[in-house]
Amino acid sequence: MVLSNEVYTGAGLSATLIPEMDLDVGMRYGTKVSSNKKGFMFKNSASGTIDYTTVSWGTDATGGAGVTDTTRMMANIYQGCLAEVKVWESDFTTERVATQYLRIKSNTSSKISFDVALGGSAKDDIVQLKILNYGAPVQAVAEIDDKHNLLSDNWLGLITTFTPPTVDPEMKQLNMALGGTRNFSHQLKGAESFGEASMDMAVSNASWLYYALGTMTWTAPQSGGRVLGLNPDNSQVYFDDTNQVFYRRESDVINPPEIFNTDSDTLKKLDNAAAINYTISENNTGSLPSFALEVTAEKGSTISSTNYFQDATDERLFSRVFTGCMVQTLTLNFEEGLELTASVSAVTRKAHDTIENYVPKRNVRTNTSLFNYSDDDANNPYMFSDGTISMFGQTWARVKSGSVTISNNLTPQRYIGNYDRGIIADYTAGQRTYEVSLNLQVTDRTLWDSLRTQNETNNSTDGLGTLKLEFEKSTTDKFHLEFDDYIVQSVDIPFPDDKGMLDLALVLSPRTLTGCNYTGKWVIQG
Fold first, then answer.
1. Which of 360, 265, 250 has its CA nearest to residue 305?
2. 8-state DSSP, 521
3. Which CATH class is domain 379-520?
4. I want to staple 335 with a disulfide (CB 3.0 to 4.6 A). Which of 193, 241, 326, 401 is the partner?
5. What gap in Å lies between CA 512 and CA 432, rounded to an integer?
6. First to last CA, the chain
7. Is 284 exposed, middle or buried (0-12, 13-18, 19+ CB in 10 A)?
8. What is the DSSP letter of 447?
């Protein structure tokens, strides 16, 4: 059936998340070089001319032939990413050059090229290559033979509205001195910039707090004594609690592919029935954890599981992948009688489109089969009745509505380099700000007095307690935020027309995050 004359409709739209993590390319695609060295490495052992700006794999180390469904990369998906490169002499003990951090110029299904030489000088040199996490979506094994896959089957949650990033090329219109016309003599497109992605959702988990704040540690429940080396399961999560990494085992392959041996007994099987305890904290470096968004439009449900991929001829579906997304602002909104909602605004680094032979969502066609989708109450949103708010040393029971906003003030950066005009090299995080707005009814003058004081409220100096917001569905599904050093920015006490209760509008400006914990079943790969 030819679908090219059909139109795309809203019923065929979908969006999923792709985790971005360090990719040790050698461990996944290279050749084992030494038993006493951790990982798998590339070895330029092919005869003929060797291009020392390029690392390749397959049966021919120079040409990159022999790529398979487990070793195939998506073309240019890592273009512009930063890579850590080490070059060793053949004895694997002497470094040819010091560790380099190089920008990737391009990549094919079996080659990665840089715009400078790696520093090798002999065909038996060994190259260790790790693509660093920013803008680097996790690869996945092909679900359809000879097609490209990313780990793009991650459920976004209870999304109510979604707006993908827009692509905004800069128009360059030039008037030439000898144009001979009143029209512009020449025009072209300059650098591309991107509008922010926005998502509104009913909050069923607190994973977005990690992306907004930047750092996490966790403790995960192990399923009995089960480890990966003992009858490993597919479609199962394993974890390395020492290095704080979650792994998904799919089709006998670990994602992300960073462990030395896929039969290793160091990876523990996650107990799906129990909760993970996350401790989330502020990242005070210049960057934040990133993720990718996949947006797909398809024509109807007549596409079979064997031809669910982007094709240039009948255009039955098309996908765009936005890599290097970071949370610009996160706002949690709560209102009496309703569920807790959130608004996420995210910047992006690059838009990938026209990806032929790409399989969106890893061929997962229903939301209920996406990763992190749960069949129990973990899918339900937190309700307003689940919340507790404490400040000035007491719990406030008459809060009617409010919001918490975290802003990262991300600034785009473009660096001189040989990659692409459509790539923003990086985003740097600026001044972080917090704002808490509450609408409530009061029975005393505490808030008004706090507005008139000059100093901020600090638990260690005045004993009035921290500002704490907590939402709890159960003892195994909850999160809380704690702030200190907060100041009353404004207090508005309007006169009601109906002469009823006085509703007060309060804005607080916290300066310090002292605690953020999340307990739940959502697996955060990052």
1. 360
2. S
3. mainly beta
4. 401
5. 10
6. 41
7. exposed
8. H
Assess contact for 510 and 488: CB atoms under 8 A.
no
Are 31 and 41 a contacting pair, CB within 8 Å? yes
**366 Cβ contact list (under 8 Å, min separation 6):** none
Whether the CB-CB separation of 41 and 26 falls below 8 Å is answered with yes
Tokens 């509104």 correspond to 200
Contacting residues for 193 by C-beta, under 8 A, at least 6 apart: 168, 169, 170, 412, 424
Spell out the residues 6+ positions from residue 140 whose beta carbon is closer than 8 angstroms to its own. 149, 150, 151, 152, 250, 253, 255, 362
pLDDT at 350 over 90: yes
Least Cα distance to 519 among 219, 288, 236 occurs for 219
CA 37 to chain centre: 31
Name residue 277's beta-bridge partners: 219, 519
Least confident of 247-261, 288-302, 355-369: 247-261
Contact partners, residue 376, CB within 8 Å, separation at least 6: none
Distance CA 120, CA 103 (A): 17
Give the percent of the chain with pLDDT over 70: 89
Task: Find out whether 445 and 476 touch, Cβ atoms under 8 Å.
Answer: no
- The span from the CA of 133 to the CA of 245, in Å, is 13
> Are the CB atoms for 281 and 213 separated by under 8 Å?
yes
Helix (H, G, I), strand (E, B) or coil at 446: helix
Do the beta carbons of residue 215 and residue 284 sit within 8 Å?
Answer: no
pLDDT in tens, 357-372: 889 999 998 889 999 9
Burial class (CB in 10 A: 0-12, 13-18, 19+), 64: buried
Using one digit for the tens of pLDDT, what is the confidence trace for 119-154? 766 667 788 888 999 999 998 888 888 888 899 999
Measured CA to CA, the distance from residue 64 to residue 47 in angstroms comes to: 13
Contact predicate 185/176, CB 8 Å? yes
CA distance 155 to 207: 12
Could you state, in order of their start, the residue ranges of all structural domains in the chain?
23-131, 379-520
What is the tens place of the pLDDT at every residue in 215-255? 999 999 999 888 887 777 778 899 988 889 998 887 677 77
Which residues is 236 bridged to in the sheet?
249
Strands 399-407 and 433-441, bridge-based pairing: antiparallel
Nearest to 377 by CA among 462, 478, 452: 478
Write the single-letter amino acid at 144: I
Residues in Cβ contact with 280 at an 8 Å cutoff, skipping those fewer than 6 apart: 206, 209, 210, 213, 215, 216, 516, 517, 518
